[in-house]
Design goal:
The protein is of the alpha/beta class and 348 residues long. The protein has 14 helices and twelve strands. This is LacI family transcriptional regulator.
Length: 348
């Protein structure tokens, strides 16, 4: 086993004081050229590697990280994200980091905006967040524009001003959905894109998925997809009317994790002719996947997005590890046959 050398060993080898070695290692204070050369030679000979844990503890700086997370009690899609964050927080509990999770209402942009501004007032050194709402995100970024706050996002990318993005290529995700529905049907008939409970104009993640789906249709000579936005209070009535109006509809792509709501309506009217694809391994989605109402689910691995992103942020602040500007995760395609393996892996 290789001996782990300390600053004291370097000082003895170079015949200088421990304080002189410390000044050279941390580039502070004046040291003679001769002493510096002896110290560097000793470091090389001993193959000295600094202990990052000891360094962070010695520095004594508490790195405050704010995480803006949609409240999982209001939308269960975000529960795995919370679990992933808590696991990383526990993993780094011995270090000088303080992670604060700000839970916002995923259906109220004002809630997101208020908590983003609160994180700024709380003096965070980094903000890791889900940019669900475009206008409010831009407002927060304007507030942070002249600061040194590290900025990272997950689930949905931003075009600029961000140090880190962890998630999927959402345009490619939309194209994947188009290919899956095309494989399930024919070159005739129509496909529909369904947005649920969100403002399309204020949600980049929905626009990019739609963009990818529409691009696949155009590139493969298919009809341009129909689009409809459904809100909870009129959901079934509006969807049934839409289906009556478009009897040649052969496939539906739901851009959120709420494909089960469309599946519930299709099941209630005994319509098993329309292929359906949506996102994520919610229990309700898995139920209709096994019943054959949902044909495919695209797994976004929200737990991995949140945990990996927070780990990147922490290690950058603690150890100065370089952040990847973009970390794209695989697009998981889940059907009734392989769903169990995805669920088991996600629960680990």
């Amino acid at each position: 086993m290789r001996t782990k050398h300390t600053i004291k060993d370097i000082a003895e080898k170079a015949e200088v004081s421990i304080g002189t070695v410390d000044r050279v290692l941390h580039k502070r204070g004046r040291v003679s050229k001769a002493s510096e050369e002896k110290i560097m030679a000793a470091i090389k000979e001993l193959d000295y590697k600094p202990n990052p844990i000891a360094q962070t503890l010695k520095n004594g700086v508490i790195h405050k990280i704010g995480v803006l997370l949609p409240n999982p009690d209001l939308d269960p899609f975000w529960r795995p994200c919370e679990e992933g964050l808590q696991e990383v927080i526990s993993e780094y509990s011995a270090f000088t980091v303080d992670v604060i999770i700000y839970y916002f209402n995923p259906f109220k942009p004002k809630s997101f905006l208020q908590l983003g501004h609160k994180a700024y007032r709380d003096g965070v050194h980094a903000l890791f967040f889900v940019p669900l709402f475009d206008r409010e995100t831009n407002s927060i970024l304007e507030k942070l524009g002249n600061t040194d706050i590290l900025l990272g996002t997950f689930n949905s990318p931003l075009s600029n001003n961000i140090d880190l993005y962890v998630g999927q290529d959402l345009v490619l995700s939309g194209k994947t959905a188009g290919r899956l529905l095309h494989m399930s049907g024919s070159d005739k008939g129509n496909f529909a894109i369904v947005h649920i409970n969100e403002s399309y104009e204020n949600a980049r993640h929905m626009r990019e998925k739609e963009q990818g789906f529409a691009a696949y249709c155009m590139e493969n000579g298919l009809n341009s997809p129909l689009t409809i936005t459904l809100m909870t209070e009129e959901f079934k009535t509006k969807l049934v009317s839409f289906l009556e109006l478009h009897k040649d509809l052969q496939g539906i792509f739901v851009t959120t994790s709420r494909a089960y709501e469309v599946a519930k309506v299709l099941d209630s009217i005994d319509n098993n002719k329309i292929s359906l694809i949506g996102y994520d391994l919610l229990d309700q989605n898995l139920k209709y996947l096994q019943k054959g109402i949902i044909d495919f689910l695209i797994h976004q691995d929200p737990k991995m997005q949140a945990s990996l992103g927070l780990r990147y942020v922490i290690e950058n602040l603690l150890f100065k590890k370089v952040l990847p500007k973009e970390k794209l995760l695989p697009i998981g395609i889940v059907n009734s046959e392989n769903a169990k393996s995805y669920v088991e892996r996600s629960s680990v």
